[in-house]
Amino acid sequence: MADEEDTVHYKGTAGGWGSVKGMARIAGMERPTPAVLRTLERQNKVKGFMCVSCAWTKPKQPHMFEFCENGAKATLWELTTRRCTPAFFAEHTVSELRDWRDHDLEQQGRLTHPMRYDRASDSYLPCSWEEAFEAIGAELKALAPASTVFYASGRASLETAYLYALFARMYGHNNLPDSSNMCHETTSVGLKKVIGSPVGTCVLSDFELCDAIFFFGQNTGSNSPRLLHPLQEAVGRGCKIVTFNPVREKGLEEFKNPQNPAEMLTGKKTLISQLYLQVKAGGDIAAILGMIKHVLAVEAQRWAEQKQHVIDVDFIEQHTTGFEAMRMKVEAIGWDEIERESALSRGDIEQAADIYISAHRTIAMYGMGLTQHFHGSDTLAMLTNLMLLKGNVGRDGTGISPVRGHSNVQGQRTVGISEKPELVPLDRLAEQFQFEPPREKGMNTVESCEKILSGEVRAFIGLGGNFVRAIPERERMEAAWQRMRLTVQIATKLNRSHLINGEIAYLLPCLGRSEEDMQESGPQTVTMEDSLSCIHGSFGKNKPASADLKSEVAIVAGLAKATLAPNPKVPWDEWVADYAKIRDAIQWTYPDEFADFNQRVFTPGGFYRGNPARERIWKTESKKALFTVPKMLNALGFEDKNDRWRLITLRSNDQFNTTIYGYSDRLRGIEETRDVLLMNPEDVAAAGLTEGQIVALASDAGDGVDRRVDGLAVTPFLLPRGCVAGYYPELNPLIPLWYHDQLSKTPAAKAVPVRIIV
Ligand SMILES: Nc1nc2c(c(=O)[nH]1)N[C@H]1C(S)=C(S)[C@@H](COP(=O)(O)OP(=O)(O)OC[C@H]3O[C@@H](n4cnc5c(=O)[nH]c(N)nc54)[C@H](O)[C@@H]3O)O[C@H]1N2
Ligand SMILES: Nc1nc2c(c(=O)[nH]1)N[C@H]1C(S)=C(S)[C@@H](COP(=O)(O)OP(=O)(O)OC[C@H]3O[C@@H](n4cnc5c(=O)[nH]c(N)nc54)[C@H](O)[C@@H]3O)O[C@H]1N2
Ligand SMILES: [Mo]
Q1: Please, is 698 exposed, middle or buried when counting C-beta atoms within 10 Å of its C-beta (0-12, 13-18, 19+)?
Q2: How far apart are alpha carbons 108 and 509 in whole angstroms?
Q3: pLDDT of residue 736
Q4: Is the pLDDT of residue 625 over 50?
């Protein structure tokens, strides 16, 4: 393990003064009014509004300010005083805007008016909502439903998501990909396969009981900072945290709580990770396998000495299948292979395994570092093997807890946004709304991209997101995109996806979650589901950014009404007038999860929608939890070879996905630029490069396709040798579309094969 001096750039802690400063900078830039400051105070509180940033749970007893630096940035970003009006579009053609940076596009502020793309003048012109709905409806009616895609980014509420999915199915398709397809789809499919649950099994109280947390590939300090509170509290009562991450992420090393005045004044900080292992990108399978090997060796030893078991023999017997086959395979794999594939020493892996052995209750957490790999699902299966050994699923204080991304990405799946018809209660929908829902499987994100490339997809509707910027293979995708007949984007701010248009294109501006949503029956509440399956009401109070905005619910209903034949069972207008009626419909479709939905909307801490795996009811094919025989030792879809690097694409501390707030990756000490290539200092020297040298990266996927990104400054950074890193989305052109998790098709953005070109 390296010590702090080795983290070439940054020396401070996560949280602490740095984060207060970061907020002030954004606040200064965005001129917050007293109303905005009051909004921050209501953030993530009961009857307040739920942060639009991450999906981490909102506790029953909130902190005085239940938000973090990045949550505040997200709110301020939405409540900016800047406006991107028709006058702006009159001054700039769409082609001209395509040369602008992501940051500069969103900096124009909130979209204010529905706009229609005019091909003749290559610009956006204002239009009325009626005109937009009518034109889009007419186009959809003329197209084959199966040739259209309704995408959703994970921010829209349960109410909007439910209506959007219903609209798609009544129109006639299941082409409902969402951002989860680029994110935790590996969880939805991979975890479901082994424990029968597409989501995590933990609730917040488990974090108060666990003795150890194993943390893989999630950058808490930047991407879900409020999770640092329960982690800090766990460490305070003696829980041990072991982290596996190629990058030494500050937030997982130590944390100074900016909301604790004593810690701020004394400079006291909590050491978060007891053990921090810089595993090679894609090397987790080997690392976890090594731990399992050690646990089994200790078990065998204890057996010989007739001592107490290490593994949970009763649990394995009653609740699982496949243990013996897994054990034999793991025992046959040698330590030299494990060390080589993980880039960790046997001693370090055994130390981690000893912590696992000593802990009575363990939680496993993970993020994109495990899901975005060619063998991401196999990596999750390996992690599940480890957890099942000691019965660490379905027992208080234990569980598998993926850290989800968008604030409602998990919930959208819960209420029907899914291309997989078997996950949706189609029979209930048929009965409820008297129509015949389509039964054919829809397209996920990668499949949609393939069919946009082949010309089979003719229309794309985007409910939020910046699709062309977030997906792999950007150059080819942008070219194909413009051959579609219809593209519609529902958004709050201008981004690159709004500048790559089909023949007919509309840009429809919507309310943000922090804004008052006034409808016929009064101001409306919306709901969302967090990472721990708790559902919260959210109530916006700020004055809308423009009088011409509509809510996402109203936009979806407007599009649906203009497209579908009237159906007396589907009261779009009544739903828009009163969202409580949408919640009644959700409750009817999902009676188990959403009983008494309207009565429980403002339950402190949210209401838990339940999870059979937590009760040790396994909804797998065998009705048991599954041990998986490892088929490979790393998560890569390519062989190692000379001059081929594993590229990790990262988020900075100053972005939310493709929204670039600024150019300060404070916690990693990288400032003022995003055009960097992070490399181990020894690799820099061995490759004959120098710090600051400008290089290019090219795809080395062996498929003959030219993919290249220029202008990256070589930056020494403490990564495992053989790995390089840089920022998403700038490096997305390097990811082949076919390079995705084998089971779920989640693009494998965390170990992309590349060459460095001088
Ligand atoms: N402020 C802010 N918050 C966000 C977001 C944001 O962009 N900004 N995005 C939201 C969304 S949609 C999501 S999905 C989440 C994303 O949050 P994360 O899951 O944290 O995703 P990444 O930032 O991509 O970082 C993944 C981490 O995995 C590590 N890693 C890379 N490869 C490997 C590997 O092979 N093995 C292991 N063990 N680790 C690896 C990286 O070093 C990094 O620390 O955050 C959500 N919250
Ligand atoms: N290389 C690489 N690629 C990746 C990733 C990676 O780690 N590496 N991560 C992947 C992941 S996990 C994800 S989730 C994707 C996401 O990537 P994105 O598509 O970028 O996700 P968003 O943050 O939803 O999209 C931002 C846009 O949403 C719009 N928006 C903001 N708020 C609202 C709202 O309330 N309503 C509506 N309708 N629109 C709104 C704004 O116009 C804004 O420009 O990127 C994926 N791509
Ligand atoms: Mo995500």
Answers
A1: middle
A2: 14
A3: 98
A4: yes
Any idea where the domains of the chain sit in the sequence? Answer: 4-78, 83-179+416-513+541-564, 185-403, 645-757
Closest CA to 705 of 434, 441, 477: 477
On the CB side of 199, CA atoms within 13 Å amount to 26
Q: What is the 3-state secondary structure (H, E, C) of 636-666?
A: CCCCCCCCCEEEEEECCCCEECCEECCCEEH
Strand duo 670-671 + 676-679: pairing: unpaired
CATH code of the domain occupying 83-179+416-513+541-564: 3.40.50.740
547 burial class (0-12, 13-18, 19+ CB within 10 angstroms)? exposed
Q: Are strands 212-216 and 362-366 parallel, antiparallel or unpaired?
A: parallel
- Residues 39 and 42: their CA atoms lie apart, in Å, by 5
- Average pLDDT on 156-180 reads 97
**Amino acid code (one letter) for 722:** G
pLDDT at 211 over 80: yes
pLDDT in tens, 272-326: 999 999 999 999 999 999 999 999 999 999 999 999 999 999 999 999 999 999 9
**Structure confidence at residue 218 (pLDDT):** 97
CA-CA distance, 466 to 458, in Å (whole number)? 18
Residue with tokens 């009676």: 591
Closest ligand to C-alpha of residue 470 is 2
Residues 148-162: what's their mean pLDDT?
Answer: 97
CATH class of domain segment(s) 645-757 = mainly beta
DSSP 755: E
Write out residues with Cβ below 6 Å of ligand 1. 53-54, 70, 183, 216-219, 222-224, 244-247, 249, 279, 281-282, 284, 367-369, 403, 405-406, 648, 650-651, 655-657, 750-751
pLDDT over threshold 90, residue 22: no
Nearest to 547 by CA among 114, 216, 13: 114
How far apart are the C-alpha atoms of 139 and 709, rounded to whole Å? 37
Name, in order, each residue with C-beta under 8 angstroms of 98's C-beta and a sequence gap of 6 or more.
496, 499, 500
pLDDT greater than 80 at residue 191 = yes
CA of 361 to the centre of ligand 2 (A): 35
pTM: 0.95
Q: Which CATH superfamily is domain 185-403 in?
A: Dimethylsulfoxide Reductase, domain 2 (3.40.228.10)
